[in-house]
Amino acid sequence: MADYEKPWLTIDQQVDHLADRGVDVHPRDQALALLASTGYYRLTGYLYPFRDAERYRDEDGRSRVRVLETYRPGSSIEYVQEIIDFDRKLRLLVLEGVERIEIAVRMQVGYVLGRTSPFAHLNSTTFQPNFVQPRLDSEMPIQHAVWLKRVAERRDSSDEAFVTHFRSSYDDQMPIWALTEILELGQLSRLYKGLNDESSLEIAQAFNVPTKRLMSSWLASLNYARNVAAHHARLFNRKL
Question: What is the pLDDT of residues 35-74, one digit of tens each?
């Protein structure tokens, strides 16, 4: 493994480095301001689609594409600034949209499971066997136990008034329709994936989704996109 030996660069040197690789850095004041507020690696992430590429044959004779260090003509600081501004607006739209879906999924999960039992999430019959039983060919922990542990940690760290009420009055016993209110989308997604076919299909059909498999896939992608947006990472040109 090679040692990392690239030097630290000043903002001015970073602008020069981009210019040497083919980026139009004019007006220079804008380039300096953008790098100072965004950072070199974040900025070059937005520039990545504009890098030069070449085709070559690997040792097996297969055609491959190699991404180069230089940028195609027309790559400019002004254009990447527009993309960064677009991505900021896109993240806000995604967060607003996912919020509506997340709240609706919380409601449906609590509603459908709660009809069976207030504590259906503790009952093994609520889930697929592979979610509640240990795998004979693996030392991985039981998925249901891991999920319950993480949900308990989330409950214990919550300062919501209704959580405090269940903590003091019912020794932390929370029915599923209350518990879903503190679950993150990722926890909801994992819970949904583990549900038995009857419950999972009813929830999916409430959103006009025809199968559990498709609903699980969409929830996982939505959770990923939400986390990217919530942590202010680059959503533009990201593969889901």
Answer: 999 999 999 999 999 999 999 999 999 999 999 999 999 9
For residue 138, pLDDT over 70 is answered with no
Specify the length of the chain in residues: 240
**Helix 28-38 vs helix 77-116: crossing angle, to nearest 10:** 30
CA distance 83 to 86: 5
Question: 132 with 49, same domain?
Answer: no
**Which domain range does residue 145 map to?**
88-230
Cβ pair 140, 130 in contact under 8 A: no
Same domain assignment for residues 61 and 121 = no
Q: How far apart are the C-alpha atoms of 42 and 46, rounded to whole Å? A: 7
Q: Are residues 59 and 96 in the same domain?
A: no
| Structural domain count, the chain | 2
Classify residue 1: in a domain, yes or no.
no
Instruction: Please name which of 87, 12, 11 lies closest in space to residue 48, comparing C-alpha atoms.
Output: 87
- Residues 6 or more apart whose CB falls under 8 angstroms from that of 212 comprise 192, 195, 197, 200, 201, 204
* Residue 2 covered by a domain: no
Cβ atoms within 10 Å, residue 86: 13
pLDDT value of residue 10: 97
Residue 95 and residue 195 in one domain: yes
Residues 156 and 186 in one domain: yes
